[in-house]
Specification:
With about 230 residues, this protein is of the alpha/beta class. It has one domain: 3-Layer(aba) Sandwich (Rossmann fold), CATH 3.40.50. The protein is about 35% helix and about 30% strand. The chain has seven helices and ten strands. The strands form two sheets. The protein has a six-stranded mixed β-sheet with strand order 6-7-8-3-9-10, sandwiched between helices. Strands 2-1-4-5 form a four-stranded antiparallel β-sheet, covered by helices on one side. Helix 6 links the parallel strand 7 (about 160-165) and strand 8. Helix 3 (about 100-110) packs across helix 4, helix 3 (about 100-110) runs parallel beside helix 5 (about 145-155) and helix 5 (about 145-155) runs parallel beside helix 6 (about 175-190). The longest helix is centred in the C-terminal third of the chain and has 16 residues, at about 175-190. The chain starts with a strand and ends in an 11-residue tail after the last strand.
Amino acid sequence: MIEIKKLHKSYAMGQNTLHVLKGINFDVAEGEMVAIMGSSGSGKSTLLNILGMLDVADSGSYILDKNPIKNLDETKAAIYRNKFLGFVFQSFNLISYKTALENVMLPLYYQKVARKERQERAQKFLEQVGLGPWAAHHPNELSGGQKQRVAIARALVSEPKVLLADEPTGALDSKTSYELMDVLQNINDKGITLLIVTHEEDIANMCKRIVHLRDGVIVEDKKVKQVRASSYVE
């Protein structure tokens, strides 16, 4: 599903250059659930941004579902993002004056899906994350965990092949984090590939594979026995 070869990324910092990714080699098979770990500055968010086509590597190759991701203009990148990828961020990124349903419908609006179908699909995915009854609520009427579930439903409504999550539990308490990971594991059980950036060991162990980044290189890549979040959720 994802093939990364010899990926390099640097940023200019005044007179200096910060070499963030230093020749990353990284493959992800369809249906995997991978945690990407590393301390601040290790390159994990940069890697996720390149995978999400929000940033571009300086050199190396990136193939997504057999499609080379190279020299894309913003229009083509947006088409690929809509077709293949869903995003979940730590800060939820919901629009405050829109209801939960309207937030989930938004990606379909940009894909020019008819309004009735947008509503039906958005409602279906809200129900999938356990928030059907909250469809008419605005973000300020929802808890942190509920906001993140809305964000997950919004990421899923386009039916992406890969879900990219950057610290999805970072703003949540432990109980809510485990409930959220239960939702993400159930999504992965349906065959969607998940990549989760996290600094929390317990969250990483709820994935099937853990990749450790340090100073822009992968220092460890191991498969783990997945801990099911449902064992923590009452």
